[in-house]
Design goal:
By secondary structure, this protein is of the alpha+beta class. Helix content is 26%, strand content 43%. It is globular.
Length: 136
């Protein structure tokens, strides 16, 4: 059975801004990075059930890169996005608070890297997302 990893972050911004920044390719290229020496050079979003998403992540020195892609399996505007990528899934919940949004992401761990390394990498991406949204 695949182990699930859950991470979350609280963002001081209205839900409309959080949702937009999460789903807009131009924004994604600005925040989607698991470490300072990597970046996302392009992103595509077809935000509908059955629609595809993809991003190309590369080391800034050009030494490595990979594509991350999948399909949307469930969408509830401003509340929930479920995706499938390969044989794995992820769920992103947008929980509206009085003055912020808690973004909670649960994903299937992969078997290549240690759980804590995966958790740290995905959490770094959420931390970057928070900085991006709150700086606007």
């Amino acid at each position: 059975m695949t182990q699930k990893i859950t991470i979350e972050i609280k963002i001081a911004a209205p839900i409309a801004e959080v949702w937009r920044a999460w789903n807009t390719p131009d924004d994604i290229t600005r925040w989607n990075s698991g470490s300072p020496d990597w970046h996302t050079i392009r992103a595509n979003v077809d935000l509908r059930v059955g629609g595809a998403f993809s991003s190309r992540m590369e080391a800034k020195d050009g030494s490595a890169g990979f594509d991350f892609a999948g399909t949307y399996t469930k969408i509830i505007d401003n509340q929930l996005i479920e995706t499938a990528f390969g044989d794995r899934t992820a769920v992103v919940q947008f929980i509206v608070n009085d003055d912020s949004v808690t973004l909670q992401q649960t994903f299937d761990a992969e078997e290549t890297h240690p759980i804590e390394l995966q958790r740290a990498g995905w959490q770094t991406i959420l931390d970057n997302f928070k900085r991006h949204v709150e700086s606007r």
